[in-house]
């Protein structure tokens, strides 16, 4: 028997490490500045190596099987029937500009089906190879889990094409009943949405298939299990039944959605108490932004650390002397019998890969997945056209892995720079931003020029792929090489706690060619005061002559 394998990525990750680990935002075409539908996804995990997946279009023989390997663990789960033709996929976008992303919410432990063979990651990448638009993707996904069983915990999926955007939430039925429970809600055009490891669909229309689809046994199953007891089905809330809110869900998950929403509509500040875990007044599933959202703006939202809010991670004592907006795991810790937490922001150090997909219905050049590796805050997204058939070596599977460093790996180059910045964040982030903005401006211009060329080749699929491949390689080389140079520059400029003066990237020298004496920035006044408050006169300077 001919067996086609789907290898999604080979890394070990226990289910528990997925908790509070991903963030998605969705912008419908009517809410975007350029008329494109956009989806963001940060695939966050401590053991996920960032690489750009590639599945070529292919024809398959009758009777051919597809081996399923769990995305998180690479564990063999079983095999399913292959379809006669599969579509080209690069990253999380296919040749028809269909995008699928996810965030894990887990839900009720007893609903995980350990006998099923379709996990959430396989579900994404199989569907991208079989569906042409969002509605078709929903049909494919729900048919797969009905036929083969769903073996993951609760998931929220972003499913979008150039014209429509949906959120679908799914949980299993437990090991004694095959299939899954799910609901999918279309985001109205002109609106934006988001999810971050907490189920967000509450009540939904029961008789509006144009805008809402759901499993036929969804509500009856919840009633049978005692998750829902109200008399009227119209009161049924998916989130309340399968992933009830608690403090942790609001503060570590919903807060991220709120932080992104407030940048798209200032009125969302009214939900600050909800994000802080105090109020139970839920945010809406989707909101209308108070301005059109640009792709660059959406990219920057993925770099958020709650700046400008009561949860600003650069302001509390955990930021240290250099205003570091990161907290090392675990998120929760205990002091004197009381449990405390660190904030969990959108941008995090343990990102494997992240992207902003740009699905353009009115652009003959097609769609783009803006793809990057590691921390969104300290990395740059590279534009990869959906017609690309060859992944740049720096993003390719097999270039390196989570335990193998390589200078040819974008993941490791971005990690190298980020980890330097974490030690002296307030000193280094300005230079990182400068390089980031310069590259992003240049990439935007390069895309404008490439769009024209790609549009001219709209009827020549082979040539479009060749041009897209060359473009992807050139832009990736440029970005990764620039980041290597940035890392070398930061190493010299901030060596040993000093700051060596420079102008436009050239270090100052004396007329004799020697380095100009470096500056000693030390620490800020706030940190010095903290030292004195905690140590009293221990370090006071005493004049021996008195």
Give start-end ranges of low-pLDDT stretches: 1-20
Radius of gyration: 25 Å
Quaternary state of this entry equals single chain
Overall pLDDT score: 94
Helix content: 25-40%
What percentage of amino acids are in beta strands? Answer: 15-25%
Strand order of the largest sheet: 17-15-2-3-20-21-22
End-to-end Cα distance:
93 Å
Shape annotation: globular
Query: What's the main sheet like?
Result: 7 strands, antiparallel
What structural category characterises the helix and strand content? Answer: alpha+beta
Total of DSSP H or I helical runs spanning 4+ residues: 11
Number of strands: 24
Describe the SSE topology.
Elements: E1 3-5, E2 22-27, E3 37-44, E4 54-55, E5 58-59, E6 65-69, E7 76-81, E8 85-86, E9 89-90, E10 93-94, E11 99-106, H1 120-128, H2 134-148, E12 154-160, E13 165-172, E14 180-186, E15 192-195, E16 212-214, H3 218-225, H4 238-242, H5 247-264, H6 272-275, E17 286-287, H7 295-301, E18 332-335, E19 338-341, E20 351-359, E21 368-373, E22 382-385, H8 410-423, H9 425-456, H10 461-493, E23 502-503, E24 506-507, H11 525-535
Parallel strand pairs: 1-6
Antiparallel strand pairs: 2-3, 2-15, 3-20, 4-9, 5-8, 6-7, 9-10, 11-12, 12-13, 13-14, 14-16, 15-17, 18-19, 20-21, 21-22, 23-24
């Amino acid at each position: 028997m001919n067996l086609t394998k789907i290898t999604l990525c080979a890394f070990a990750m226990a289910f528990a490490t997925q908790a509070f680990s991903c963030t998605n935002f969705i912008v419908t075409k009517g809410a975007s500045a350029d008329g494109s539908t956009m989806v963001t996804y940060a695939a966050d995990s401590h053991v996920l190596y960032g690489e750009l997946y590639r599945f070529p279009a292919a024809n398959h023989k009758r009777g051919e099987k597809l081996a399923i390997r769990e995305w998180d663990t690479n564990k063999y789960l079983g095999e399913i029937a292959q379809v006669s033709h599969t579509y080209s996929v690069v990253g999380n976008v296919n040749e028809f500009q269909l995008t699928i992303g996810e965030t894990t919410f887990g839900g009720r432990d007893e609903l995980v089906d350990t006998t099923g063979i379709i996990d959430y990651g396989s579900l994404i990448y199989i569907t991208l190879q079989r569906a042409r638009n969002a509605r078709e993707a929903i049909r494919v996904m729900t048919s797969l889990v009905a036929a083969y069983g769903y073996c993951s915990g609760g998931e929220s999926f972003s499913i979008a094409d150039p014209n429509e955007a949906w959120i679908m939430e799914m949980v299993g039925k437990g090991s004694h009943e095959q299939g899954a429970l799910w609901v999918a809600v279309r985001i109205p055009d002109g609106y934006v949405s988001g999810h971050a490891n907490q189920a967000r669909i509450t009540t939904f229309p029961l008789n509006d298939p144009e805008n809402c689809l759901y499993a036929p046994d969804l509500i009856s199953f919840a009633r049978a299990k005692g998750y829902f007891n109200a008399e009227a089905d119209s009161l049924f809330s998916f989130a309340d039944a399968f992933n009830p809110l608690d403090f942790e869900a609001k503060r570590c998950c919903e807060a991220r959605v709120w932080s992104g929403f407030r940048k798209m509509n200032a009125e969302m500040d009214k939900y600050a108490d909800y994000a802080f875990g105090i109020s139970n007044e839920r945010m809406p599933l989707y909101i209308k932004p108070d301005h059109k959202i640009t792709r660059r703006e959406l990219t920057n939202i993925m770099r958020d650390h709650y700046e400008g809010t009561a949860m600003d991670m650069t302001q509390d004592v955990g930021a240290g002397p250099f205003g570091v907006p990161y907290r090392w795991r675990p998120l929760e810790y205990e002091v004197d019998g009381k449990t405390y937490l660190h904030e969990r922001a959108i941008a995090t150090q343990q990102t494997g890969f992240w992207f902003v997909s740009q699905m353009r219905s009115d652009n003959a050049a097609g769609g783009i997945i803006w793809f990057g590796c590691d921390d969104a805050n300290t990395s740059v997204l590279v534009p990869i056209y959906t017609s690309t058939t060859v992944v740049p070596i720096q993003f390719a599977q097999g270039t390196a892995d989570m335990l193998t460093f390589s200078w040819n790996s974008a993941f490791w180059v971005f990690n190298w720079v980020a980890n330097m910045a974490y030690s002296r964040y307030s000193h280094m982030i300005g230079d990182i931003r400068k390089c980031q903005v310069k590259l992003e401006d240049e990439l935007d211009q390069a895309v404008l020029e490439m769009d024209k060329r790609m549009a001219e080749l709209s009827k020549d699929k082979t040539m479009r792929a060749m041009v897209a491949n060359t473009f992807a390689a050139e832009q990736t080389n440029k970005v990764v090489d620039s980041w290597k140079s940035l890392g070398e520059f930061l190493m010299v400029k901030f060596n040993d706690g000093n700051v060596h003066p420079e102008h436009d990237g050239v270090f100052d020298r004396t007329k004799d060619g020697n380095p100009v004496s470096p500056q000693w920035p030390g620490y800020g006044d706030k940190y010095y005061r903290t030292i004195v408050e905690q140590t009293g006169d221990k370090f006071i300077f005493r004049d021996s002559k008195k």
